[in-house]
Amino acid sequence: MKNQDVIKDLLNIPDSSIDLMIIDPPYQAGFTNYFNDFKKKLKPNGQILWFCQPIELYDLPEKPLQILIWKEPYSPKPIRKKYREFLDIIAWYAYEDYTFNKLLWNLMNSVFEDVVIREKRLHKWEKPETLMERLILVHSKKGDLIFDPFAGSGIIENVCKKLGRKYLGYEIIIPI
């Protein structure tokens, strides 16, 4: 994992070099403006799984092939003047003859309810390892390069090692 700002280093990543991008940026921070810059780095048959809040879906410049949903566990967090949102949208983009490995039929739903299982989260917005494992298994093959531009806790890197995928990740790590 590179301790760098991915946006500043994007030009150093070769075009058409990445098989699968799992993009989970800080929400509502304007990263949808970089969609086409990220897309240039995909191989012609590459795929993007872009995590966003429901309201951000309208900011993405392309219509996804399909919308997937990760239903988060409910939380007692207080809200003001709006409904609670306990879901993340995963906009799935796939191009040309993309990889799609079918798992057991009961695992092939477009709504995921995986949970983070540990005493303390490694990162504020950590996603469940089981969710990342399923997505990587379905959308890539052994030896594929998985790009994680907002790596957070490093869960995707761990899953890639476990599943025999190459990994390129970025996260700005601020020493405590």
Chain oligomer state:
single chain
Protein structure class = alpha/beta
How is the largest sheet built, in terms of strand order? 5-3-4-2-1-6-7
Helix content class: 10-25%
What's the domain count?
Answer: 1
Q: What is the CATH superfamily classification?
A: Vaccinia Virus protein VP39
The averaged pLDDT comes out at 90
CATH classification, class level: Alpha Beta
> Could you tell me the radius of gyration in angstroms?
16 Å
- Could you name the CATH topology? Rossmann fold
Distance between the termini: 18 Å
Characterise the protein shown here.
This protein is α/β, with parallel strands linked by helices and 176 residues long. The chain has one domain: Rossmann fold, CATH 3.40.50.150. 16% of the residues lie in helices and 23% in strands. The chain has four helices and seven strands; from the N terminus they run αβαββββαβαβ. A seven-stranded mixed β-sheet has the order 5-3-4-2-1-6-7, with helices on one face. α2 (35-39) links the parallel β1 (18-23) and β2. α3 packs across α4. The longest helix is centred in the last third of the chain and has 11 residues, at 129-139.
